[in-house]
Write a structure and sequence with these properties.
The protein is α/β, with parallel strands linked by helices. Strands 1-9-8-5-4-2-3 form a seven-stranded mixed beta sheet, sandwiched between helices. A three-stranded antiparallel beta sheet has the order 7-6-12, with no helix packed on it. The protein has a two-stranded antiparallel ribbon with strand order 10-11. Strand 4, helix 6 and strand 5 form a beta-alpha-beta unit. The longest helix is centred in the middle third of the chain and has 31 residues.
């Protein structure tokens, strides 16, 4: 079976972890500081602050911008639930905009129609590794004085108009094992705002600005030096892995029907955290038929957030037709950098066979 994801851990990561173990400094320390510095340099921001996960990165980024009870934050319903839950963690209310059906990212025109006096921030998600339409979104945010928190958890190194994602607002990244790079678990917030970075550093460590001096209510959302050591080693490999993902995605697009392949905007660089198809027929049957042909496929995401039972119980009954349609049609196939040429050909053959069997 060709897996949907295959985390790559090599000798460099193992040696880095052993060095930390032998040093005796296991918690947040010099390796975390190095990881933050290196990640900020790669993104092109002044600062980066490491956290325990992508979810905590989103949570703290919102808190650092002063988001709290009574506020509204506009975001997408077509994402992993952590995007919206991070808003709830602050006491604010998520407000869901529909998506652009071509890119699966926020429909900026719909965002504009949802802004109220309570709107304080917007969270665009660079879904599957394709950047959101940040130009008009930033213009809208500037016009209304909104904070922008980018959910770039699937988009390490993706670019919009030659600019790296995570540099428009506060960028939030995840290092979960299946992401484009990993530290096992972990997150990062990128920013150029010194005031925001000071708040982030206090919030992740019980509100301390110096030892045992607590300025605010904070959390234990620290990254460990063990995780940071893995992250630093992975950073050295990220360019090659990204090139492989882009090459694999390009191969699929060349060899699969245009009507099912993902669209890539001409002003964007898609880093293919997922290569996501639109299945015109029975998607569940397609998953089963691909498995029979040795290809693991997954659905990201089969239910929009506003349709989740928890959100339904809170009274969310939005009508978001593009997000809802996508949730019934999308299907992701293996695109990770460790796929061999033979496996890539096998995936294409399997998908083309299955499309003929399930098309309506």
């Amino acid at each position: 079976m060709i897996p949907i994801a295959r985390p790559l851990i090599g000798d460099e990561e193992k040696a880095a972890v052993m060095a930390v173990l032998e040093s005796g400094q296991l918690a947040q320390g010099s390796r975390v500081a190095e990881f933050e510095r290196r990640f900020a340099e790669r993104c092109g921001t002044v600062f980066a602050v490491a956290t325990s996960s992508g979810t905590t990165a989103l949570h703290l980024a919102l808190l650092a911008h002063g988001i709290g009870p009574g506020d509204e934050v506009i975001t997408t319903s077509f994402s992993f639930i952590a995007t919206a839950n991070s808003v709830l963690f602050t006491g604010a209310k998520p407000v869901f905009a529909d998506i652009d059906p071509a890119t699966y990212n926020l429909d900026v025109d719909h965002v504009a129609r949802l802004i109220t006096p309570r709107t304080k921030a917007v969270i665009p998600v660079h879904l599957y590794g394709h950047p959101a339409d940040m130009g008009p979104l930033m213009e809208l945010a500037t016009q209304h004085g909104l904070a922008v928190v980018e959910d770039a958890c699937q988009a390490h190194g993706a670019r919009y108009r030659e600019r790296t994602v995570g540099t428009f607002g506060a960028g939030c990244f995840s290092f979960y094992p299946t992401k484009n790079m990993t530290s096992g678990e972990g997150g990062m917030v990128t920013t150029n705002d010194e005031m925001i970075v000071e708040r982030l550093r206090m919030l992740r460590q019980h509100g301390m600005n110096r030892q045992y001096h607590h300025e605010m209510l904070g959390f234990n959302f620290r990254l460990t030096d063990l995780q940071a050591a893995v992250g630093v080693a992975q950073l050295d490999k990220l360019d090659d892995w990204t090139a492989a993902r882009i090459a694999n995605g390009g191969y699929y697009t060349t060899h699969l029907p245009q009507e099912v392949a993902p669209m890539v905007r001409s002003d964007c660089e898609h880093v293919y955290h997922q290569y996501t198809l639109r299945i015109p027929g029975d998607r569940d049957q397609a998953v089963a038929l691909l498995a029979e042909r040795g290809v693991q496929a997954r659905v990201y995401y089969p239910m929009p957030i506003h349709k989740q039972p928890f959100y339904q119980d809170m009274g969310y009954h939005d009508q978001l037709p593009h997000a809802e349609r996508a949730s019934h049609q999308v299907l992701s196939i293996p695109v990770h950098p460790s796929i061999t040429a033979e496996e890539r050909s096998q995936v294409v053959q399997a998908v083309n066979e299955v499309l003929e069997l399930v098309s309506v």
